[in-house]
Each structure stands twice: as C-alpha cells, then as structure tokens.
Amino acid sequence: MILLTDDLRERLLANGLERGADHVPVVKFFNPLGEGVWLVTELDADGDTLFRLADLGDPELGSFSLEELTSIDLPFGMGIERDILFTGDFPISVWAEAAREAGSIRAAERILYRARQARRDGV
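-> structure tokens emitted (123 positions)
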C-alpha cells in the first residue's frame, strides 16, 4: 500500500509550513496486526519528518521518520497501513486530550465520533 499519495503529501507539506498550528490530522497509519496508531498532521520540507500523535501503548505528540515507518516489516509480509476511511475531523489537540483520557487513540476515536453523533442526533 502507498502510505502517502501525492495529495496527502501536498496537504501535509502545506501544514508543515504552519508550524505550531492546531491542524486536523491528514492521515492515520496503523499496525494491522497489533498495537500502533499514528495520526499525522504535518510533513517537513525534508520529505521524511512527520509530526504526529502516536500511540504505541501511551499516546504522545512528536515527530518520526516516514522512512522508518515504511521499513517496518510485520509477520506474513505485512507492513504499516493507511486507514483509507479516516477523516480526522478534530484538531490534533482534541485527539491528544481524548487519547490521554481514554488511554489510546483507538478508544478516543470511538468516544469522539459517538459524541459527535449524539450532538447531531440532539441527545
């Protein structure tokens, strides 16, 4: 799977020009066989350094290397994948707070989208 399409790369690079802004995540990467979720908001001009909220057991904000992510070899010939249905919808600060409170990005995702749906339903 191609982790970054040209469109995603352009959006991440544009966000990278606005360092410190509270961007909505552009892409979500995940380990299809276990722990590991990354919500990415920015790409540096070097084309490799991504800013993200990562959850490898404890959600944290920081940077990581796209090259390192793509080099992860999982069992059965698998690798890290991109969630093609992910829409972001909330600024990274909201994701980070929800993930810390819930204990993981995956739990935060369920909570945030349920709360949004409840608001839409007028509950």
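The mean pLDDT is 94.
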